[in-house]
Design a protein that fits this description.
The chain is of the alpha/beta class and 185 residues long. Helices cover 50% and strands 15% of the residues. The protein has a 4-stranded parallel β-sheet, with helices on both faces. Strand 1, helix 4 and strand 2 form a beta-alpha-beta unit. Helix 2 packs across helix 7. The model has no long low-confidence stretch (mean pLDDT 85).
Length: 185
């Protein structure tokens, strides 16, 4: 059903299918990931925070939330968690303190794109003293570093964190990402 709107949006449907097929043929990495998610959702961790770190990945969050909720929110499924979405540095600024210092009842899944490091405009000069280290850095490089910092901060606070990192967001990796989460669920 989702392929029809994807085709109208101009996506390469065959590349989506190839990516999905790759997830089915080689599920080993996803099985390890699934094991850690299942472990973290049993017991005290009843909320799964899915945190996308790329504007290009932001639409994936609501799709994943709907898949997770609709599929796992059924009677008799005791090991499911409630999905919660966070996105990029905006939620890092507004929610990270609560995530680190509040109730330890959440599992964190950071979803990021490695190619983000190479995107965006470079900062030519910094207007504030003490920020010279930013000169020459691309905006994507800064955002990717923020995602790494969030990961480290959550781990240091004793929070369970899983990382899903795709090399680059394209139809192939999107198909693999979507199918992998479908298989996990």
């Amino acid at each position: 059903v989702g392929l029809i709107p994807a085709a109208f949006a101009g996506l390469n449907i065959e590349a989506l299918r190839v990516g999905a097929s790759q997830a089915v043929q080689s599920p080993r990495d996803w099985l390890r990931f699934l094991s850690s998610v299942l472990e973290s959702t049993s017991g005290a961790f009843r909320i799964s925070v899915f945190w996308t770190y790329s504007d290009r990945l932001k639409p994936f969050g609501p799709w994943l939330q709907q898949l997770w909720s609709e599929s796992l929110g059924k009677p008799g499924i005791e090991s499911s968690s409630t999905p919660m979405l966070s996105h990029g540095s905006t939620d890092q600024h507004s929610l990270l303190q609560q995530y680190m210092e509040g109730r330890n009842d959440k599992n964190y899944v950071l979803i990021r794109e490695k190619a983000l490091e190479t995107r965006g405009l470079a900062i030519n000069e910094t207007p504030f003293k003490g920020n010279d280290f930013l000169a020459g850095k691309k905006m994507g490089q800064i955002l990717y570093s923020q995602s790494r910092g969030t990961e480290m901060a959550l781990r240091e606070a004793g929070r369970p964190v899983q990382i899903v990192e795709i090399p680059e967001l394209n139809e192939n990796t999107l198909g693999e990402l979507m199918m992998s989460f479908e298989l996990m669920v």
